[in-house]
UniProtKB/TrEMBL annotation:
PANTHER family: SCP DOMAIN-CONTAINING PROTEIN
Pfam families: CAP
Species annotation: Leptospira biflexa serovar Patoc (strain Patoc 1 / ATCC 23582 / Paris)
Classification lineage: Bacteria, Pseudomonadati, Spirochaetota, Spirochaetia, Leptospirales
Residue ranges of every copy of the SCP domain listed in the record: 96-241
Transmembrane segments: none
Protein name: SCP domain-containing protein
Length: 257
């Protein structure tokens, strides 16, 4: 049997929570980016979010943190071969916003630009195999760089990241691996019932719970200075551990849209 724990891994220590950033002056941003504009226009920066037939940007006006959990597609089991990223991003947004509301704070306002920055960083962390607030992609090294790319400037900002399991693993429980089971699944008993995949809503609750139980991440979520938020996530198979399905997820917070 093997034992792995949910999200609270040494990896988190390698990526401390981003300290709230002071806004830069527009002149400084332009001066910094001018020499690289041609290159920056060619990189994947998250501005093109995937299409979805289950969730459109307009639906953020139709749902709130109280009504979203009853939305049928949000409770569907995730197919890792065809993840509906806009729907997952929305689930993370609403679960996070509900935590704020329950503690007497104003719920977040949705920001498509924050979502673009968050999704782009999540995608980059998977594509280029890193886990950090500091990107290895030229032109996107810092959160400030990534916000500049999507058109957000002159505002305070912060970012939460997480590396989580896509299956509904219960932290601290030993598991049998696909090799031990003789099949492509993890289980708590040998060749027993496979540990099921998360639903969109249950995965959102799992990652937000870990963030909320971490003082630095919780501080970002509950910071009253932040009015806007967008979330992004990207799946991958962890080749270091029997190709278990995992997700790297990101929250981006700003004071202004």
């Amino acid at each position: 049997m093997f034992l792995f724990t949910l999200c609270k891994t040494p990896e988190v220590k390698k990526a401390p929570v981003v300290v709230v950033e002071e806004p830069k002056k527009v002149e400084q941003v332009v001066e910094k980016q001018d020499p690289k504009l041609a290159f920056l226009e060619s990189i994947e920066d998250g501005r093109e979010l995937p299409d979805s037939d289950k969730w459109k940007v307009e639906q953020y006006d139709a749902f709130n943190e109280d009504t979203f959990p009853s939305y049928g597609p949000a409770n569907a089991t995730i197919d890792f071969a065809k993840v509906d990223y806009p729907l997952l991003n929305a689930a993370i947004f609403y679960v996070t916003s509900k935590e704020r509301k329950q503690l007497g704070l104003r719920p977040f306002k949705y920001s498509e630009r924050c979502e673009q920055a968050a999704f782009g960083h999540a995608q980059d962390m998977v594509t280029y195999d890193f886990y950090s607030h500091n990107s290895t992609v030229n032109g996107k090294e810092t959160l400030r760089d990534r916000l500049d790319l999507v058109g957000i400037s002159e505002t305070y900002s912060a970012e939460n990241i997480i590396n989580a399991f896509g299956i509904q693993y219960q932290s601290g429980r030993p598991v049998f691996t696909p090799v031990q089971n003789g099949g492509p699944f993890f289980s708590y008993t040998k060749a027993g019932s496979p540990i099921p995949n998360h639903t969109y809503l249950s995965l959102a609750k799992a990652v937000v719970e870990v963030w909320f139980n971490s003082p630095g991440h919780r501080k970002n979520i509950l910071n009253p200075e932040f009015n806007y938020m967008g979330a992004g996530a990207f799946f991958y198979k962890d080749k270091k551990f029997f190709d278990v399905d995992k997700v790297k997820a990101v929250q981006v917070f700003t004071a202004k849209p």
